[in-house]
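Appendix B, Record 12. Input sequence as logged:
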Amino acid sequence: MIDSGSTNLLKLSDVFEARERLQGRLHRTPLQPSLSISMDLGVDAYLKLECLQRTGSFKSRGALNKLLTLSQEQCRKGVVGVSGGNHAQGLAYAARSLGVKATICMPATTPRNYLEATRGYGAEIVLCPDIVAAFAEGRRLRELGMAEVHPFDDPQVAAGQGTVGLEILDDLPDVSTVFVSIGGGGLISGVATALRRQRPGIRVIGVETAGADAMARSLAAGGLIDMPAITSIARTLGAPRVSEFTLAHVRSLVEDVVVVDDSEAFLAMKFILERAKVLVEPAAACCLAAARRRAGSFRPGEKILILLCGGNASLDDMVQWSARFG
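Logged structural output:
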C-alpha cells in the first residue's frame, strides 16, 4: 500500500511545532507494557493510554493546536465544528480553555453522555437530523464568518494528533508495529508522520470497523467514496467519508488497513477492561482486535503498540453491547 511518491503531506516539523504549542496544556498520556495482552498476542505488547487524555480522547490535541494558530479576529467570531462524538468534546474543551465561543453541529442520534459532556465544556450544540446534515449546517455557519475546525481534514488538526506519535517514540523508541484507529483519518495521518518520518521501518497499521470503514472502501475504490450509512457500534469512527488529505497519508505511510467486526471490537474492549483494567470505547479496542488477527505473524522480538485513542463509552452502551455480543 505504501506509496512514497505522494505529495501534499504533513512535514515532521509540523508535528514538532504542534508539540511546542501544546506544551503544558494537555496530558502527556502513559505508555505501559501489558503482560495480559502480550500473552494474548504472543509478543511484547504495549498500550498508549490516550483514553486518559483530557475529554477522554486524542481529539483535544488537534482542536487546541488548530485554535492556537487562529488570528484574534477569527477567535473573536467563534469556531464551529461537526461531530457525533469525541471531536465535539475536544473542540469544546479547547475553545473554553482559550476563551473562544464554540458551536458544535451534532446528529440527533448522538448519545446523551456526549451531549452532556460537550455542553459541560461550554459549547453551544446545534442538533441536526444526521451527520450529513450536521456537516451542511457547519458549512453554513462557516460561510457566516465562523472559523471551521474540521475533525480531520486539516493539517493543523492532524499535526496536533501527531504529537501522540512523538510521545510513543520518546517512550518506546524500538517499537516495531503500531495499530491506529481510523475515523476520518486525521489521527493516523499525524501519528504515521511522526513515526515513519523518524523511523521509516516502523509498520503503521490502520484499523476500522465494518460499517464505519470509509478509508478501506476508498482505498479499494481508488478514490473517495461516501458511506451509505454508519452501522458500526464504533460511532466515533463514523465519518461519512475520508478526505483527499487523509487518504494520501494512508497511501503513503500506512502499511495496511484492517477492518474488524463489531463483535471482535467489543470482545477486545471487554478483554482490555477485565485484564488491563482500562475502559476504552470500541473505536479504540478495535486495534487490539486487529492485532489479534495478526497474532501468528509477528516476528520474534517485536514490540507491538496498541493505541487506545478514546474511552468515552457509557454504562448504557456497555450493557447493550454485552447483551448483543456476550
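The chain has a mean pLDDT of 95.
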